[in-house]
Amino acid sequence: MPIFTLVSAVIAVVALSAYANHKLVHLPDSIGITVVALLLSVGAVGLGPFVPQVAAWGGEVARGVNFPALVFHGLLGLLLFAGSLHVDVLALRRARWVVLLLATVGVLISTALVGGAFYGLARLLALPLTLRESLLFGALISPTDPIAALGLLSKAQVPSSLLTKITGEALFNDGTGVVLFVVLLGLTGTQAPNVGHVAALFARQVFGGLAFGALAGFAGVALLRTVDSPAVEILVTLALATAGYDAALALGVSAPMATVVMGLAVGGDGRAFVIAAATRERLLQFWQLTDDLLNLLLFGLVGLELTALAGTVRTYLLPAALALPLVLAARFVSVGLPTLLLRPFQKFEPHFVKLMTWAGLRGALSVALALSLPAGPARNLIVTATYLIAIFSILVQATTVEPLARRWNREGA
User: How much is the pLDDT for 396?
Assistant: First the structure.
């Protein structure tokens, strides 16, 4: 299929999903589009025996998209930059210890718990899975996408301090999870990973990404200080989100971490003190529109990709279904332990752990990481488990988090 035909087909499916959600489903755009895209794709599969051309076209569109490459070398940098650009940096500084622990220690705890439990489950069911592969699953499923739930939580009128914590964790735990995944994927052999070696690689990726992001971000702010042109300033920020992301990859440091710091630098120091008010408004409007459009496209693609994976579900349905409660329990513990450590020094909102657990959606990033694994039985098992957890996240957690937040908010009032 020609690339232009493929792109136009994907945009058409996403646009149709967006329209159907707006008129019929009324969920937040990112969640509703994924749900509608899933239903359309499942409908296409159901029509297969009767109208083979429809199912074949849908499958060709899904297979024609290199989803991991699109996420990691296209959308992720732009989305992270746009998300961090709109963060209230002063509020984030007040919640920095909560965000830091949840996005680092929390992800490490979740990875270890999910990886160990999934490995034990695989051994019990005599499935071909090593400890390293189990930890890879833990690393890719631990990053959450609570940004997708922000609209719902805003409607539920949860405290703004909680929204800041959710946004901060969403931005930084993506980077931590990707770093862990890349480090574990780079290890060879079937023996247990060397903890010291993993820690050294992890530190280089994380701290290198933070340092490079700060350097590039403040260099961008210095450039913005010397001009007063919306077009030029938009181009400078685009260069940070794209060329800066690729430069971090080339240096072997965490590109997601670097991009988040670049966005915070521009959104905090740059937006408040460097960019003129009129220019600032146009810049923020551009990035808000970019963020909205890319999220719509990304979640529509998730719907197509998840359906394209449906053929692997039957073989590994039982272990994939059993992985779901393991992941939810690990999320609860990985939020609860850092919260317990900080509770003497930090005030937390009522039902904080429960809400953070249920609002921790899994979606595009986890699916992309699973699809990037080398071919083999372990990949099929991990992809199936990721697929089912993402479906549960989208269809159950995302659609119930608002009423639960309202109820817990009333109880804590």
Answer: 87
C-alpha span between 207 and 219 (Å, rounded): 18
Judge whether 229 lies within some domain: yes
3-state percent helix, strand, coil for the chain, nearest multiple of 5: 80, 0, 20
Crossing angle (nearest 10°) for helices 317-342 and 96-103: 150
**With bands split at pLDDT 50, 70 and 90, how would you rate the model's confidence at 71?**
confident
Rg of the Cα trace of the chain? 21
Tell whether 39 is covered by a domain. Answer: no
Percent of the chain with pLDDT over 90: 21
* pLDDT score for 89: 82
Distance, in Å, from the CA atom of 182 to the CA atom of 179, rounded to the nearest integer, reads 5
Q: Is 228 helix (H, G, I), strand (E, B) or coil?
A: coil
Query: Is 201 part of any domain?
Result: yes
| CB-neighbour burial class of residue 88 (10 A; exposed 0-12, middle 13-18, buried 19+) | middle
Contacts of 233 (CB under 8 A, 6+ apart): 224, 227, 275, 279, 283
Q: Tens digit of pLDDT for each residue in 129-154?
A: 889 899 999 999 998 875 566 666 76
CA atoms within 13 Å, Cβ hemisphere of 270: 34
| CA dihedral over 52, 54, 56, 59, signed as positive or negative | negative
What does the alpha-carbon distance between residue 233 and residue 324 come to, in Å, rounded to a whole number? Answer: 45
Residue 299 has pLDDT above 70, yes or no: no
Query: Does 47 score more than 70 pLDDT?
Result: no
Q: Which residues contact 323 (CB under 8 A, 6 or more apart)?
A: 114, 118, 121, 137, 385, 388, 389
The model's pTM is: 0.81
**Separation in Å, CA 29 to CA 154, 203, 271, 330, 386:** 14, 36, 27, 28, 22
Is position 3 within any domain?
A: no
In the chain, how many domains are there?
Answer: 1
Residue 374's Cβ-count burial label (10 Å; 0-12, 13-18, 19+) is exposed
By CB neighbour count within 10 A (0-12 exposed, 13-18 middle, 19+ buried), where does 375 fall?
A: exposed
Nearest to 330 by CA among 110, 152, 115, 136: 110
Give the CATH number for residue 148: 1.20.1530.20
State the residue range of the domain holding 199: 67-412
- Are 77 and 87 contacting, i.e. CB atoms less than 8 angstroms apart? no
